[in-house]
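Human: I would love a firmer grasp of how sequence relates to backbone shape in proteins. Take your time, and here it is.
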Amino acid sequence: MDITSHTHHISQQYNIELDDIRKHLSEMGGMAQRQVNDAIIALVDADITKAEQVVRADKTVNSMEVSIDEECIRILARRQPAASDLRLVIAVTKAITDLERIGDEASKIARQAIAMSSEGLAPRGYVEVRHIGGLVSRMLQDSLDAFARLDIEMAENVVQMDRTVDLEYGTAMRELVTFMMEDPRSITRVLNIMWSLRALERIGDHARNLAQYVIYLVKGEDVRHTDLDK
């Protein structure tokens, strides 16, 4: 089911306004996705130019959040939407907050990459960054696709993937702590990797939130604090 067929109204202008917030959400999601992917590359490849691009892009993501939020407020004030339209507007306002925070986390990773350019590369942790980064990038892409298609099954898979990310993150952190205990000289540099892994784990949490908004949008059920099996 494509989100563009969610609801149609007699008022063509109302249809345009609803289509616009969907389109602008997708554009913001694409920008956040690029930030995450570029931040991972910047850290793993020590690409300072790309890291600086990620940091600069955060201002664009922030301004997109403000703009879309204003659009949603105007729809609420002028149209007084009900039922599925109201759920759409609410879901979009929540989703843009998570996307803005994803941008913040990507910027944190990029700043770690910049810091490490002067401190030196860490002796451990890049394999974990690449692996967990790949998982959360896929989660984000799938959650955005699920939102665009109103795909419940894809959204549920994203929520399930968050469990995997949490397990992988916990394992990676334990291994890195052990490594630092064995080689105290590495502590500063490995800590940079650990902070980056923490940012990736948080990005996974926000991607999971996006998927849960899809379930709310389609079913009208808030599943944020519901056991996944239920």
Remarks:
- The helical segments are 12-45, 48-79, 83-119, 126-149, 152-182, 187-219.
- Residues 83-119 form the longest helix (37 residues).
